[in-house]
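Milestone M4 deliverable, item 7.
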Amino acid sequence: AQPIACDSGAHIIVARASTERPGTGVIGIIANRVASQIPGSEIVAVDYPATLKEYPESETAGVIEMRRLAVEYASACPGGRIVLMGYSQGAHVSADVVCGNSEAGFPQSDPLPANVADRISAILLMGDPSHVASAPFNRGTSIKDGMFPRLNTTAGCAAVQDKMVSYCDTGDVFCDRGDDQGVHRRYIQVYGAEAVAFVVDKV
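Output delivered:
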Protein backbone atom coordinates (compact mmCIF):
# COMPACT_ATOMS: atom_id res chain seq x y z
CA ALA A 1 0.00 0.00 0.00
CA GLN A 2 1.07 3.56 -0.68
CA PRO A 3 2.19 5.52 2.39
CA ILE A 4 -0.42 8.12 3.29
CA ALA A 5 0.52 11.71 2.50
CA CYS A 6 -0.86 14.17 5.02
CA ASP A 7 -2.64 17.17 3.52
CA SER A 8 -2.00 20.67 4.84
CA GLY A 9 -5.64 21.50 4.09
CA ALA A 10 -8.74 19.35 4.40
CA HIS A 11 -8.82 15.63 3.64
CA ILE A 12 -12.28 15.35 2.08
CA ILE A 13 -13.78 11.85 1.89
CA VAL A 14 -16.84 11.72 -0.35
CA ALA A 15 -19.56 9.06 -0.76
CA ARG A 16 -21.67 9.33 -3.91
CA ALA A 17 -25.43 8.83 -4.23
CA SER A 18 -27.18 5.62 -5.28
CA THR A 19 -26.70 4.62 -8.93
CA GLU A 20 -24.13 7.35 -9.64
CA ARG A 21 -21.10 6.11 -11.55
CA PRO A 22 -17.89 5.58 -9.51
CA GLY A 23 -16.23 8.78 -8.33
CA THR A 24 -17.47 11.66 -6.19
CA GLY A 25 -20.89 12.06 -7.86
CA VAL A 26 -22.90 15.25 -7.52
CA ILE A 27 -21.68 15.95 -3.97
CA GLY A 28 -18.25 16.33 -5.57
CA ILE A 29 -19.41 19.80 -6.62
CA ILE A 30 -19.42 20.81 -2.94
CA ALA A 31 -16.12 19.01 -2.28
CA ASN A 32 -14.46 20.90 -5.13
CA ARG A 33 -15.77 24.25 -3.90
CA VAL A 34 -14.50 23.55 -0.39
CA ALA A 35 -11.10 22.43 -1.71
CA SER A 36 -10.81 25.59 -3.80
CA GLN A 37 -11.22 27.68 -0.63
CA ILE A 38 -8.82 25.63 1.52
CA PRO A 39 -5.41 25.29 -0.13
CA GLY A 40 -3.65 21.95 0.30
CA SER A 41 -6.90 19.95 0.35
CA GLU A 42 -7.42 16.54 -1.21
CA ILE A 43 -10.65 14.79 -2.28
CA VAL A 44 -10.99 11.02 -1.99
CA ALA A 45 -14.00 9.09 -3.34
CA VAL A 46 -15.29 6.10 -1.37
CA ASP A 47 -15.13 3.01 -3.58
CA TYR A 48 -18.43 1.21 -2.91
CA PRO A 49 -21.32 -0.25 -4.97
CA ALA A 50 -23.90 2.56 -4.43
CA THR A 51 -26.65 0.26 -5.71
CA LEU A 52 -30.35 0.53 -4.84
CA LYS A 53 -31.10 -3.12 -5.55
CA GLU A 54 -29.13 -4.59 -2.64
CA TYR A 55 -29.20 -1.40 -0.60
CA PRO A 56 -28.29 -2.70 2.89
CA GLU A 57 -25.31 -4.64 1.49
CA SER A 58 -24.16 -1.70 -0.62
CA GLU A 59 -24.55 0.82 2.20
CA THR A 60 -22.70 -1.46 4.64
CA ALA A 61 -19.81 -1.85 2.18
CA GLY A 62 -19.66 1.94 1.95
CA VAL A 63 -19.55 2.31 5.74
CA ILE A 64 -16.69 -0.19 6.03
CA GLU A 65 -14.66 1.52 3.30
CA MET A 66 -15.25 5.14 4.40
CA ARG A 67 -14.48 4.17 7.99
CA ARG A 68 -11.22 2.53 6.86
CA LEU A 69 -10.21 5.66 4.94
CA ALA A 70 -10.94 7.90 7.94
CA VAL A 71 -9.22 5.66 10.50
CA GLU A 72 -6.10 5.20 8.36
CA TYR A 73 -5.77 8.91 7.66
CA ALA A 74 -6.36 9.87 11.29
CA SER A 75 -3.70 7.45 12.53
CA ALA A 76 -1.16 8.52 9.87
CA CYS A 77 -1.85 12.24 10.26
CA PRO A 78 -2.32 13.22 13.92
CA GLY A 79 -2.96 16.86 12.97
CA GLY A 80 -5.18 15.96 10.04
CA ARG A 81 -8.50 17.65 9.31
CA ILE A 82 -10.99 15.21 7.82
CA VAL A 83 -14.27 16.19 6.17
CA LEU A 84 -16.91 13.54 5.40
CA MET A 85 -19.65 14.29 2.90
CA GLY A 86 -22.29 12.23 1.18
CA TYR A 87 -25.46 12.51 -0.86
CA SER A 88 -28.44 10.14 -0.52
CA GLN A 89 -27.01 6.64 0.12
CA GLY A 90 -23.64 8.36 0.52
CA ALA A 91 -25.10 10.55 3.28
CA HIS A 92 -26.42 7.42 4.99
CA VAL A 93 -22.90 5.94 4.75
CA SER A 94 -21.28 9.09 6.18
CA ALA A 95 -23.72 9.29 9.10
CA ASP A 96 -23.24 5.61 9.96
CA VAL A 97 -19.46 6.01 9.92
CA VAL A 98 -19.51 8.73 12.59
CA CYS A 99 -22.63 7.77 14.59
CA GLY A 100 -22.57 3.98 14.22
CA ASN A 101 -25.29 2.06 12.41
CA SER A 102 -28.45 1.54 14.47
CA GLU A 103 -31.10 1.35 11.75
CA ALA A 104 -33.43 -1.65 11.57
CA GLY A 105 -32.40 -4.18 8.92
CA PHE A 106 -28.74 -3.16 8.83
CA PRO A 107 -25.75 -4.70 10.64
CA GLN A 108 -25.10 -2.70 13.79
CA SER A 109 -21.80 -0.86 14.18
CA ASP A 110 -20.17 1.45 16.70
CA PRO A 111 -19.54 5.18 16.39
CA LEU A 112 -16.02 6.24 15.41
CA PRO A 113 -13.49 5.92 18.25
CA ALA A 114 -12.84 9.26 19.96
CA ASN A 115 -9.29 9.66 18.63
CA VAL A 116 -10.63 9.45 15.05
CA ALA A 117 -13.78 11.49 15.71
CA ASP A 118 -11.52 14.26 17.04
CA ARG A 119 -9.86 14.48 13.62
CA ILE A 120 -13.20 14.97 11.85
CA SER A 121 -13.71 18.69 11.21
CA ALA A 122 -17.07 18.57 9.42
CA ILE A 123 -19.73 16.14 8.22
CA LEU A 124 -22.12 17.16 5.45
CA LEU A 125 -25.22 15.09 4.65
CA MET A 126 -27.72 15.76 1.85
CA GLY A 127 -30.90 13.70 1.48
CA ASP A 128 -29.92 11.15 4.15
CA PRO A 129 -32.30 8.12 4.28
CA SER A 130 -31.35 7.65 7.97
CA HIS A 131 -32.62 11.19 8.73
CA VAL A 132 -34.41 11.60 12.06
CA ALA A 133 -36.69 14.62 12.41
CA SER A 134 -35.54 15.51 15.93
CA ALA A 135 -31.77 15.55 15.27
CA PRO A 136 -30.08 18.79 16.40
CA PHE A 137 -27.94 19.02 13.26
CA ASN A 138 -30.85 19.07 10.78
CA ARG A 139 -31.33 21.84 8.21
CA GLY A 140 -34.12 22.21 5.68
CA THR A 141 -37.89 21.97 5.87
CA SER A 142 -38.45 18.27 6.68
CA ILE A 143 -40.25 17.37 9.91
CA LYS A 144 -40.45 13.62 9.21
CA ASP A 145 -38.10 10.67 9.60
CA GLY A 146 -36.46 9.12 6.57
CA MET A 147 -36.78 5.69 5.02
CA PHE A 148 -34.33 4.04 7.47
CA PRO A 149 -34.48 6.25 10.58
CA ARG A 150 -31.48 6.11 12.90
CA LEU A 151 -32.31 4.73 16.34
CA ASN A 152 -29.26 6.09 18.21
CA THR A 153 -29.14 9.69 16.99
CA THR A 154 -28.73 11.11 20.49
CA ALA A 155 -26.08 8.75 21.83
CA GLY A 156 -24.33 7.82 18.61
CA CYS A 157 -23.98 11.24 17.04
CA ALA A 158 -23.40 13.22 20.25
CA ALA A 159 -19.61 13.43 19.88
CA VAL A 160 -19.83 14.95 16.40
CA GLN A 161 -23.20 16.72 16.29
CA ASP A 162 -21.68 20.22 16.49
CA LYS A 163 -19.63 19.52 13.35
CA MET A 164 -22.48 17.93 11.43
CA VAL A 165 -25.18 19.29 9.16
CA SER A 166 -27.94 17.33 7.41
CA TYR A 167 -30.09 18.85 4.66
CA CYS A 168 -33.54 17.36 4.08
CA ASP A 169 -36.62 19.08 2.67
CA THR A 170 -40.30 18.17 2.85
CA GLY A 171 -41.37 15.86 0.03
CA ASP A 172 -38.01 14.10 -0.37
CA VAL A 173 -38.72 10.43 -1.10
CA PHE A 174 -35.71 9.13 0.86
CA CYS A 175 -35.03 11.41 3.83
CA ASP A 176 -38.62 12.62 4.39
CA ARG A 177 -40.64 9.66 3.06
CA GLY A 178 -42.30 12.10 0.69
CA ASP A 179 -43.41 11.67 -2.90
CA ASP A 180 -41.43 14.28 -4.83
CA GLN A 181 -38.35 12.88 -6.61
CA GLY A 182 -37.31 16.40 -7.60
CA VAL A 183 -36.78 17.55 -4.01
CA HIS A 184 -34.10 14.88 -3.48
CA ARG A 185 -32.07 16.21 -6.40
CA ARG A 186 -32.12 19.90 -5.54
CA TYR A 187 -29.97 20.24 -2.40
CA ILE A 188 -26.84 21.54 -4.09
CA GLN A 189 -28.84 24.11 -6.02
CA VAL A 190 -30.75 25.24 -2.91
CA TYR A 191 -28.20 24.84 -0.11
CA GLY A 192 -24.84 24.56 -1.89
CA ALA A 193 -23.43 27.93 -0.88
CA GLU A 194 -24.57 27.51 2.73
CA ALA A 195 -23.12 23.98 2.88
CA VAL A 196 -19.74 25.10 1.53
CA ALA A 197 -19.62 27.96 4.05
CA PHE A 198 -20.47 25.57 6.92
CA VAL A 199 -17.68 23.15 6.01
CA VAL A 200 -15.05 25.84 5.37
CA ASP A 201 -15.88 27.49 8.69
CA LYS A 202 -15.51 24.20 10.58
CA VAL A 203 -12.20 23.29 8.96
